[in-house]
Amino acid sequence: MSRQTQGYIAAIAAIALLAIFPVKFGSFSLLSLLHLDVSILSEMLLFAIAAMSVNLLLGYTGQMSFGNAAYFGLGAYGAGLSIHYLNVHFIAATLIGTAAAILGALIIGPFLLRRRGIYFSLLTLAFGQVFYFIAYRANQFTGGEDGMSFPRPYVGFAGWHTNLHEATFYYLMLIVFVAVLTAFWLIVRSPFGRTLQAIRQNELRVRYLGLDTNKFIYVALVVSAAMAGLAGALYGLLIMFAAPLMLDWHQSGDFVMIMILGGAGTIWGPVVGSLIYVIGKDIISTLTQTWQIYIGALFVICVLAFPRGLLGTLLHAIARRDVGAPIVEDTMPHTAWETGTPTGAAAVAVEQKEL
Amino acid sequence: MADYSISRGAFVKGATLAGAAIAAGFPAFVPSRGEAADVVKIGQIAELTGVYVDISQPEVYGAQLALEHWNNKGGVLGRKVEIVLEDDQNDPGIAVQKVRKLVNQDHVSAVIGTVNSAIALSASGAANSLGTLYIVTGGHTDPVTETQCHWNVFRTCHTAWQETQASGYSIFNKFGKRWYLVTPDYAFGHSLAAGYQAVLRKLGGQVVANDLTPLGTNDFSAYITKIEPAKPDVIIVLLAGADFVNFLKQASAYGLIKKFPIAGPQAELEPFLALPPESRVGYWGIEWYYNSDLVFSKKNTQAVNFVKEYRAKHGLPPSARSVFGYVTLDRLLWAISEAKSTDASKVARKLENAHFETLWDGGAYYRNVDHQLMWPNYFAEARPYGTPSDKYDIFNVLDRQPAEKISKPASEQAQACHLNYPS
Amino acid sequence: MLANVAPSVFNGLILGAFYAFVAIGLSLIMNLTATINLAHGSFLTLAGYLAFTLVSKGTSFWFALILAPLLTVVVGVLVERTLIVPLYKRDPMFSLLLTFGLALIAEEVYRLIWGPNGVPFSAPGVLGGGISLGFMQFPTLRLFIALVLAVAMALLALFLWCTKFGLRLRAAVQDTEMIAAMGTNTQLLYMVNFALGMALAGLAGVLASGLLGLSPTMGNSLLMPAFVVVIIGGMGSLFGSIVGGLLVGLAISITTLFIPAANEIIMYILMAVVLLIRPRGLFGTEGLFG
Is residue B197 located within the same domain as residue B244? Predict the structure, then answer.
């Protein structure tokens, strides 16, 4: 059995596991054993999607975004505002939220494109904070610090619809998650995705091949924003609330952390990370008031010992043991900061000198 | 490419093994909650990390004391009571998840808690969709008992409106009519400002300026330098928590507090004790105080014992926050025992309009039209060094306003709040 | 309103000096090793708490002002040698994430040691009041902070430009590989540089505790302003951090005067503008981060 087949089987097994997690056998379920509510599983999937959005940018395009929470929050507020003012239903609310996030990326994308590396990251941070403050200040619409409460509309049409209780919501999230995961997988395998990875490794080289890297990165930004926005809209619908903190850099940092914990540059990494972070934090914070120490220690240990993330380390170890099997070029998460080739402003300077 | 100095293989092996072991054994570490059927569980969400721990912790302590008192009397419905505490981490989303966990996994009969207004709102919604009773202990924002009220939600602490009405008249009478407002720029701050502006309109006063400060401002110098040229009669500080401490500390250094009187709707013991004594000035609305005849006389044995017990246990006198926690759990358990059931709508009906005597003189009741606790609000002057016998006795209560006088009339509330009991 | 401009400008500059002071320790560490220290706020808070403990045990404020930063240096260097050294060879992203984790741990540890409540800490009487400047009364503590900053910068400059070790440090900032190839002990350089950064952070922390309420989360509120200052002033330049600080302080002050609603956003708008027009910042070195 080839590694690839093993990979498919593992993926299917994982999805199956996620599906049976909340199912009750008698009076027990895997979920209740861990003393978890099915609602937190939904959150885990949605944060995984948000972390995937960061992964698309870092793991595959080599650009670290510290502002994806802005899209996440835009999604939540988009959904909430449309429910509050336009009385839309579930699917429409989700689509509007996602559209709001896409719009956000379309607007600030051109600014972000002007820089690479750490300057890009800082710009994402700065713009993310600007969105955060707008959500905060526009308190006539958004409720400001108090946040925005909204009901969860039913899924469907006027003729046929169903209310979503938490368990049903979860399975809907699972479907969405699998769809997004598949889309993500298809994207990174596509020529577009390959180009992104090439950009991560050496953007200058890609330019020399005649491709407009700016266009590729712009599309990646928009796709990333769409994913984060989708996750945000659904999260807003999960908790029936939208709050400014959803856009804050701390939230962005959480998504980055989840990606790193699992493994940047891997498909399932964000899911593993989300499992550890969302579920782990929920369990640990229930157990002890000093949970923050454990989560902080988790980050520290992960960075020191598992820089590839848990899944990434595992995959890397497997790949290295496969003597003769092609070893994928190092997917070690790194931004364009540390490669020897000039990037960012320096690259632009070099290019301008050539002209 | 960077490379690593740690041996990968052994580490990965070891870690995977450890991970597997933990995953296998983990359920053993998770405390078995929700097992015993002969315990009544009450969920409490509180801010145990982040910026509000100092005012949230006393609410937890207060509730714990009420728990002990009830359990000493044999519990409720013939069963012992247990509090299941969860940290909402100052995050409305996490608060919702914790409420769901408390109800679905811990099988709590009701939820209490939070000092965070956003969380009060998000948790209210979550509790409502679960059909669980939720009593807000310390979140003051008006919508909880107005436009966003629910049949299953009650609130113990005062509303922003009540606080401004209580202190507004006293401040006007004491200092004059030109007010400079320093308002934290969020819903609660705006409610306070609106409340004071209503008072001023009635009395013919004037808002000289209303400066909106971002939440979490660490430097107020820019605002402080604007105040002096405006020459107000009084500076109204609507800030709370760390902002409050920063502002007073800095205003003191600019000599502002010597030049102008300072006043506001809500002073709390905890942030005041965090101030250096020379900055502990002003005249403040205060929701409760542990040492004042205007709040409770020596004849109120429940209050006297509460103070004694709390202080012995925690080293600090109880604050209004402690009282929020205590009264909330106390009344909740009373209502459950009166209803002879933990069914949320039955308990809610019992809570409504039930008058009771408690840790202050004058009694209280949760009003039926909006589920807001109706109780007096007080006005006090700060006393920087306390008294010779008690360095924590930093407030001197001067005045008190009864609930009916400071609240929006029931008819008005009925317009804003639609409880929507399930039929 | 125009009468307020002079006090606002002056206030803004002194506020800027404070922000510069908070940022300078961060800048020093970043310049040499590209370490992004998100635990910077935690070290500020630590110094404040140490000073508070010292003073409550009876030492004078002035003694605490010296000792607390020294203790912070000890803790900081311990952290650096054990946790941060492994990251020097790696992408700066990792130092960012690791220090983020450290900040989480630190906040809870402070809560456990000193309690969740803010503790009353203030500068001694002589620094507590204000000085009349004619057009306004100004807090002595703020002027003192500006003074300490000036003195500290002078000492730092003396060290960097007039000692051999300082020379090597400056050379290392420009080109670490070369200086290592010439035989210098780069690990010692890193350590001393970190210690310097910690000393400055410690000083800033003690002084900040006089301005702000001292609580487990005090330092967090200063973290973002510190970063913004370093970015605007330019990464790789200490002088840039000072100028950046002054600019940020001035911007906040003037914005509060004319458009109060924008005064928290202004910092990020400035940052975005700088990044778009001149990403290395006003005085930054090209290519510090690639």
Answer: yes
DSSP H or E segment with residue A134: helix A117-137
Q: Which two tokens stand for residue B222?
A: 């820019």
- Which residues of chain B lie closer than 8 angstroms to A316, CB-CB? 8
Q: Do B300 and B333 fall within a single domain?
A: yes
Indicate which CATH number applies to the domain containing B146.
3.40.50.2300
Q: Which residues span the domain enclosing B262?
A: 161-286
d(Cα C75, Cα C79) in Å, to the nearest integer?
Answer: 6
Helix, strand, coil percent content, chain A, rounded in steps of 5: 70, 5, 25
* pLDDT, tens digit (0-9, with 9 covering 90-100), for C88-133: 888 888 898 899 999 999 999 999 999 999 999 988 878 877 788 7
Mean pLDDT on A209-224: 95
Q: How many domains does chain B have?
A: 2
Which CATH number fits the domain C2-277, given the four candidates 3.30.70, 1.20.140, 3.20.20, 1.10.3470?
1.10.3470
Summarize the confidence of residues B55-84 as an average pLDDT: 96
Query: What 8-state DSSP symbol labels residue C81?
Result: I
For B354, which DSSP code?
Answer: -
Quick: pLDDT tens for B91-147: 999 999 999 999 999 999 999 999 999 999 999 999 999 999 999 999 999 999 999
User: Amino acid letter at B281?
Assistant: V
What does residue B179 show for φ and ψ, rounded to 5 degrees?
A: -110, 140
Q: Which amino acid is at B167?
A: S
Please report which confidence band the pLDDT of residue A159 belongs to, taking 50, 70 and 90 as the band edges.
low
* Nearest alpha carbon to residue A236 among A148, A309, A174: A148
> Cα distance from C236 to chain A (closest Cα, Å)?
14
Q: E strand or H helix at C163, and its extent?
A: none
Q: Residues A104-143: pLDDT tens digits?
A: 999 999 999 988 888 898 899 999 999 998 898 887 788 8
Q: Helix, strand, or coil here: B74? A: coil
Domains of chain A and CATH, by start:
35-354 (1.10.3470)
CA distance A153 to A49: 22
How, if at all, do strands B234-237 and B262-264 pair? Answer: parallel
Give the closest residue to B81 by CA, choosing from B330, B302, B354: B330
Q: Looking at residue A277, what DSSP letter applies?
A: I
Q: Say which residue the tokens 């579920």 belong to.
A: A279
CA separation for the pair C184, A121 (Å, rounded): 33
Q: Which of B222, B249, B277 sits opposite C11 (nearest CB)?
A: B222
Q: Compute the Cα dihedral for C34, C35, C40, C46 and give only its sign.
A: negative
Contact flag B49-A292 (C-beta cutoff 8 Å) = yes
* 3-class secondary structure, C79: helix
* Structural domain contains residue B382: no
Q: How far apart are CA C191 and CA A108, in angstroms?
A: 40
Query: Is residue B243 a contact partner of residue B214, using CB atoms and an 8 Å limit?
Result: no
State the amino acid at position C47 in one-letter form. A
Yes or no, beta carbons of A296 and C108 under 8 Å apart: yes
DSSP B155: E
Give the β-pairing of C137-139 and B110-113.
Answer: unpaired
Q: Give the gap in angstroms from C-alpha B71 to the nearest C-alpha of chain A.
A: 23
CA B86 – CA B289 distance, rounded (Å): 27
Domain boundary among B243, B267, B286: B286
A141: nearest CA partner in chain B: B187
Using a CB-CB cut-off of 8 Å, the residues of chain B touching A37 are 97, 100-101, 104-105
Nearest-10 crossing angle of helices B92-104, A280-287: 70
Question: Which pLDDT score, from 0 to 100, does residue B30 have?
Answer: 47
In a shared domain, residues B204 and B304: no
DSSP string, A216-268: HHHHHHHHHHHHHHHHHHHHHHHHTEE-GGGGSHHHHHHHHHHHHHH-TTSSS
Whether B30 and chain A come into contact, CB under 8 Å, resolves to yes
